[in-house]
Design goal:
mainly alpha, Rna Polymerase Sigma Factor, Chain: A, 2 strands, Arc Repressor Mutant, subunit A, 235 residues
Length: 235
């Protein structure tokens, strides 16, 4: 079975061609999904128009902005509070601020829309943690409770590495001060000067907290590798 179909939307023409040898019901289902996808893509507003429509209070544009960025921003919120319920509350609060302040967004000064939205979400999370007094800055790494390593025998040539999820779990176990600086510097890509301004600390404190966070994580990784290698020896 051969079929040629065209979908026109917004002045754009999309052609789809199939040579399909299954029954026509499967073909029609595939064709329908293709059409829905093309129409959905063509309905997406360009970023400048999306911003303009949001400034006019258009609900459809606000919903599209939310749909585009909510999943990524929920991950950002979760990195800071670690609790799904709290993260969802922060997400809603952050988007309220976004819609209230989108009139002030200027791409020339603020960078991309995604970067501006992310900055609002991060600041919302920091304000929440500050109000809850959920973080402090530990100056002595020896005060951080970390278990001593066990001396065990294992094959040193065996390569064992934690997964990305294992690493994220380790990061979530960092003391709040360490975790904030680590997230801001390593994941959000802020510089120490920006971090110092955001957290009300000195650049030196920001650098020391990052160093201590890395030392903490290194010990956590060693603990993880030790447990895994011990299991390999047992097997």
């Amino acid at each position: 079975m051969y079929c040629h179909a065209s979908v026109r939307r917004g002045g754009l023409k999309h052609d789809c061609k199939w040579v399909f040898y299954k029954n026509r019901y499967n073909f029609e289902a595939t064709f329908y999904k293709y059409c829905v996808l093309i129409l959905k893509i063509n309905r997406m507003l360009p970023e400048e128009l999306l911003i303009e429509q949001c400034r006019k209070g258009k609900q459809a544009a606000q919903e599209e902005l939310y749909d585009r960025f909510s999943a990524a921003m929920l991950s950002v919120c979760t990195r800071y509070c670690g609790n799904r319920t709290e993260a969802e509350d922060l997400l809603q609060e952050g988007f309220i601020k976004i819609f209230r302040n989108i009139y002030d967004f200027k791409a020339k000064n603020e960078g991309s829309l995604a970067a501006w939205i992310k900055r609002i979400m991060v600041n919302t999370a920091l304000s929440y943690l500050r109000d809850k007094k959920r973080f402090s800055f530990i100056e002595d790494i020896d005060k951080v409770p970390i278990k001593d390593q066990e001396d065990i025998l294992f094959d040193e040539n065996e390569i064992v590495s934690p997964s990305s999820q294992d690493l994220m779990n380790m990061i979530s176990e960092l003391p709040e001060g360490y975790k904030l600086v680590f997230n801001l510097y390593v994941i959000e890509d802020y510089g120490h000067k920006e971090i110092a301004s955001m957290l009300g600390i000195s650049e030196g404190t920001s650098k020391s907290q990052l160093s201590k966070a890395r030392a903490f994580l290194q010990k956590k990784i060693v603990e993880w590798e030790t447990r895994k290698k011990k299991l390999l020896v047992a097997v």
